Amino acid sequence: MGEKGVFEDILAAAAGDTFKYYSQGEWKVSSSGKSVPIINPTTRKIQFKVQACTQEEVNKVMESAKSAQKLWAKTPLWKRAELLHKAAAILKDHKKPIADCLVKEIAKAAKDAATEVVRSGDLVSYCAEEGVRVLGEGKFLVSDSFPGNERTKYCLTSKIPLGIVLAIPPFNYPVNLSVSKIAPALIAGNSLVLKPPTQGAVSALHMIHCFHLAGFPKGVISCVTGKGSEIGDFLTMHPGVNCISFTGGDTGIAISKKAGMIPLQMELGGKDACIILADADLDLASSSIVKGGFSYSGQRCTAVKVVLVMSSIADSLVKKVNEKLGKLTVGPPENDCDITPVVTESSANFIEGLVMDAKNKGATFCQEYKREDNLIWPLLIDNVKPDMRIAWEEPFGPVLPVIRISSVEEGIHHCNASNFGLQGCIFTKDINKAILISDAMETGTVQINSAPARGPDHFPFQGLKDSGIGSQGVTNSINMMTKIKSTVINLPTPSYTMG
Predict the structure, then answer these.
(1) Cβ proximity of 415 and 405 under 8 Å
(2) Active site residues
């Protein structure tokens, strides 16, 4: 069967461009009779449509997920891992149609779209292996290790599933940041309900079909689509949800206030600072700034968002960055361009607002500001001052501010004055300075002599302050999606093991 035929079940027969949602192991059309359009960022025309699910359909998904989870939790670990490995292989085998969706939905360059799918398959397989190790071990404690006790109690602890995990990924990595939530939840014995972003929903639906083809039991995985205004709060506040894993923006703060007493895993963006010391390798720093700041048009939580460079080397650094920016290709994602359209017109308008504010307040534009619809040409903005919005706000686009600093302390102060604290980076040849600055930076991760990055996917990934709650990464996610259960054996008399 060809790749197109593999995915034909997820399309509604009555409307060739409208995709179904996934519930109880079946692809379904919503009773609402409504759909949500997905706009192609490049053409700005409707590319796809997805079902506008109702609250009643969400209720049915939750009921199914709850009953399915009870059986799934009794499935042997090796069997859960086997199914995940199978899903990973199917995902990688069908990278082309999924990557094509990423190109059309979120304007991700074709080569990067394919890479995301393959990376996602690798993540699922790694998670299967790690889950068998992490969840295959418990703890055995004896009571006499605590003062005043004889050895009359044996405590056996194990990790058990939470129940239903609600996963809400962002538009920029709708496949990878879905499976980073799905795989840990499933290996841990939870059921999983996915609410994909509107932009990226069809890519996510294709990915979910790969799990369907792998043979997961009905109800263990579900995927509902629809308008956030209609089912968003209903999902996040649903009494059936036992855990929420969310990646996105300010919405996460609202979710955390409404969610109640359940575990939360949240990554909410950053204003990742890049501190360049006077002794830095400027070729390395400039290459890292261009890659870190402008990959996927800057639409990454871990993109370099502000450069804090010592004044003595600022001119040299800016020159090198500008030379490299001039070599970037700009255009449609189908052509594998370096800079592609940002995801929505409203995003482009927001970026333009930050740019115009900086211009009006006297910043230096290293390139002419140029925009055509959603496509914004790469722009380095020099001599940015603290009173400019772009010094603090996250543009999520191909524009990067440069702030010239007179001391390391000034750079650290600016970094820590932000309400964000996701990642940061330092460029210097002095490892001792790097460690001291890293310790002083209030961010979840600090990269030394490299741009911020989420990954490899088994590395811990977390933010401080408004950048998030909890930690991601394969092992951390598995642990977060479980809880500890203890069984205590009480002995009538003390007993000590002899050799």
Answers:
(1) no
(2) 267, 301
Of 439, 404, 445, 435, the closest CA to residue 278 belongs to: 404
Residues 6+ apart with CB under 8 A from 410: 308
How far apart, in whole angstroms, are the C-alpha atoms of residue 95 and residue 212? 16
Q: What are the DSSP calls for 192-217, one per residue?
A: EEE---STTHHHHHHHHHHHHHHTPP
Kindly list the averaged pLDDT for each block of 10 residues, start to end, along the chain of length 499.
74 79 97 96 97 98 98 98 98 98 98 98 98 96 97 97 98 98 98 98 98 98 94 97 96 93 97 98 98 98 98 98 98 98 98 98 98 98 98 98 98 98 98 98 98 95 97 98 98 94
> Could you give the CA distance from residue 167 to residue 253 in angstroms, rounded to a whole number?
15
Alpha carbon distances (Å) from 357 to 121, 139, 297, 304, 348: 42, 57, 20, 20, 14
Q: Cα separation of 239 and 68, whole Å?
A: 17
Pairing state of beta strands 371-372 and 423-427? unpaired
Helix axes 110-135, 95-106, angle to 10 degrees: 120
